[in-house]
Amino acid sequence: MRLSGVEIRWVEMPLKSPFRTSFGTQTTRQLLLLRAVSDEAEGWGECVAMADPVYSSEYLEGCADVLRRFLVPSLGGEVDGVAVAGRLAKWRGHRMAKGALEMAVLDAELRARGVSFGRELGATRDRVPCGVSVGIMDSVPELLDAVGGYLDEGYVRIKLKIEPGWDVEPVRAVRERFGDDVLLQVDANTAYTLGDARHLARLDPFDLLLIEQPLDEEEVLAHAELAKVVRTPICLDESITSAKSAADAIRLGACQIVNIKPGRVGGYLEARRIHDVCAAGGIAVWCGGMLETGIGRAANVALAALPGCTLPGDTSASDRYYAMDVTEPFVLDDGHLPVPAGPGLGVTPLPDALDAVTVKTEWIAL
Ligand SMILES: CSCC[C@@H](NC(=O)CCC(=O)O)C(=O)O
Ligand SMILES: [Mg+2]
């Protein structure tokens, strides 16, 4: 198919409540939505970069710039989803921007072909169990109220954000209040060092599913050292940027589990390759989240339905973060979300809802 151009849409979604991690507090999710217009169909992509380079080196305006000047102009002529990565390979890095563009082209192609994202990626289920990510709170009682609420809503797994000073005590409190059967894990977003190994081992008695990205994203060997001290399985997030980096991390013993985030790794096709590399290595994977709108959420739920995704992902319902989504909301049903079955993403933005959160649009003609 041939693209006539790509629309970049700056979107601002107010969060229902502040979301605090070890690298800061978010009250509004600023993100880019891409609309790829081709001679066969239109497709949507979501760029998960944050407004500031605090989760990774990418940031919203940087993504808009690299899309405008380098990535979109590289997609002239005949193109389809699988061709995008090769066409963009000459531009180094910028995985979130590339992933969003590939997603939009892939969505257009799949809509034209009448194939769902789930079928294209190899989904084996039509609904997926959902976990929820719980931010750092001002007090343990506030945390327990939040966790109780999510368990009442039916979430099958609780993930607690941790940082030095907020780790053992909140985990112990959740275990004491909700018991040993709740699936529980923690995410440090790189907040610790190898010198904290003995302290992190104090989490071992709480039977956590995993400790996510305790150390800096570049500390792959240090994670392997940490795994010799901490009994709880190590899961990597920020460190895993491609199938190659996943294979290396597994071989080095740096992780027993991998959080796959399509935006972080350059798109859903690379995400599937990571899934396949991990499955070959006996490594469990799950689909992470970047507070996506229903656009990215639809694709994430499709990815979460792959056979190697044996742990609940951060694929929460739309109302975890947003009072109103830009698509029909994803609603939790018995702790699960349905995998969209329609062509492409299977969802499209609701024009009025999308306009209400759009702050700017830019058309990039090809
Ligand atoms: C703004 S924090 C985004 C990164 C974080 N994501 C989550 O905690 C899940 C967010 C979600 O539910 O989409 C992670 O490191 O895993
Ligand atoms: Mg994480």
TrEMBL record:
Its EC number is 4.2.1.113. Gene3D superfamilies: Enolase-like C-terminal domain, Enolase-like, N-terminal domain. SMART domains: MR_MLE (SM00922). GO terms for biological process: menaquinone biosynthetic process. The keyword Magnesium applies. Residues 140-233 form the Mandelate racemase/muconate lactonizing enzyme C-terminal domain. Keywords: Lyase, Magnesium, Metal-binding. The keyword Metal-binding applies. Pfam families: MR_MLE_C, MR_MLE_N. It is an enzyme of class 4 (lyase). One of its GO terms (molecular function) is O-succinylbenzoate synthase activity. SUPFAM superfamilies: Enolase C-terminal domain-like, Enolase N-terminal domain-like. Its cofactor is a divalent metal cation. NCBIfam families: menC_lowGC_arch. This is o-succinylbenzoate synthase. It comes from Lentzea fradiae.
